[in-house]
Design brief:
Number of strands: 12
Order of helices and strands: HHHHHHEEEEHEEHHEEEHEEE
Largest sheet: 4 strands, antiparallel
Helix content: 25-40%
Number of helices: 10
Radius of gyration: 32 Å
Oligomer: single chain
Strand content: 5-15%
Number of domains: 2
Distance between the termini: 111 Å
Shape: elongated
Length: about 375
């Protein structure tokens, strides 16, 4: 009797809700068909969809490829890569097999060198007040020894590897740097010096060496670079920069600081790697190791100079202007020098001290050596 009542009750409920079950059955069939379709498409077209998303991120992910990430912030004060004649004269890695066209390019650069005034002419950045320089008109002394040439004095030039060498300063080089990175002689009455320090320089032209080198720029292209350094570290320079080059280590710019009028701040703002500059330590009256050609600054915009508490209102002094975003060395960003960086390991292995290890200040771009 009880079973019959239960059966009657179930039949009554089903009769009253006779449309619900077909609806649920229909929804179940639709869900099953959808699931099967998705699985089939993923199995058959998964790779193609992934490839399409990677090739068209602005569609697949609704974003623009030009957007900058936090690791690649925009730098308003940086100079654009070399263009025009300078870019066309970039030197390839296989110097030994270079054709005569490269010799013609080299001659053209030497014969058509602009004056110092035109080389350092620049427009001022309205935000920072720091000049921005056009690299295409900069003076360049790099002159690789092309196979078969005999006009280069091999007795005075030391060639480490193809494209990497050092030699005494030529008369042209001396004429170019005098009054800019090297003080003009008071006896000569030359008053054109941009970076003159009173008194007789404590380093002579004979103490200096011109270093020609190759480097890989931020665009992955091989460029010809140049430094002037003390003769006591010239061998270190060609060995270190050759290792950086073969390891595809990126450098933004490697020009003589004279191309920036001997202005260290302007050179740093242009992210220019440089060595010799007869000047004092910024904010002091003491000669910098750069004045002896015994110090070098690498990718300085990304590796700023910081003096704690020396800024306005007791804040930290940071140079160059605009590099404040790179003060936090715990952050991850490109071109940062730290104790795991190849540049750090190479210079310290050659006996250089790193400014990033100092206590009262930090000079992350700076390596110096006292032989």
């Amino acid at each position: 009797m009880v079973c019959m009542k239960i059966t009657d009750r179930i039949n009554e409920i089903l009769h009253r809700n006779r449309y619900i079950i077909p609806i649920l059955q229909g929804l179940g069939i639709i869900a099953l068909v959808t699931l099967i379709s998705v699985i089939s498409v993923n199995l058959l077209l998964g790779d193609s969809l992934t490839d399409y998303a990677e090739a068209n991120p602005e569609i697949a992910y609704a974003r623009h490829t030009e957007e900058l990430t936090e690791d690649e912030p925009a730098v308003e004060t940086k100079v654009e890569p070399a263009s025009g004649e300078q870019a066309e004269s970039a030197v390839g890695p296989e110097i030994e097999s270079t054709s005569g066209s490269e010799a013609e390019l080299t001659d053209k650069v030497r014969d058509d060198q602009p004056s110092v005034e035109s080389a350092i002419a620049a427009d001022e950045n309205p935000e920072t007040g720091i000049p921005e320089y056009n690299r295409s008109v900069m003076v360049h002394f790099y002159e690789p020894q092309v196979a078969g040439e005999s006009d280069i004095d091999s007795s005075s030039r030391f060639s480490y590897e193809p494209g990497f060498y050092y030699e005494p300063l030529t008369d042209d080089m001396i004429g170019y740097i005098t009054g800019i990175s090297y003080p003009a002689s008071e006896a000569s009455g030359d008053t054109s010096a941009v970076n003159t320090i009173a008194g007789t320089p404590e380093v002579s032209y004979d103490d200096l060496r011109y270093v020609g080198l190759l480097y890989v720029d931020f665009n992955g292209l091989t460029q010809a670079g140049e430094l002037i350094c003390n003769k006591r570290i010239a061998q270190d320079m060609v060995e270190i920069f050759h290792e950086l080059y073969t390891s595809d280590y990126r450098l933004d710019s490697v020009y003589l600081v004279d191309n920036y009028g001997g202005d260290d701040t302007a050179s740093m703002c242009a992210d220019n790697t440089s060595c010799f500059n007869y000047r004092v330590v910024e904010g002091s009256s003491s000669l910098s190791k750069h004045a002896y050609g015994l110090a070098i600054d690498i990718n300085p915009f990304y590796n700023p100079y910081i003096v704690f508490g020396a800024g306005e209102g007791g804040s930290d002094y940071i140079s160059p202007p605009g590099s404040e975003i790179y003060v936090d060395r715990s952050a991850s960003f490109a071109y940062k020098i730290d104790d795991s960086d190849l540049c750090y390991r190479l210079f310290t292995s050659h006996g250089f001290k790193w400014g990033g290890d100092w206590n009262s200040c930090k000079d992350y771009q700076h390596f110096q050596k006292t032989p």
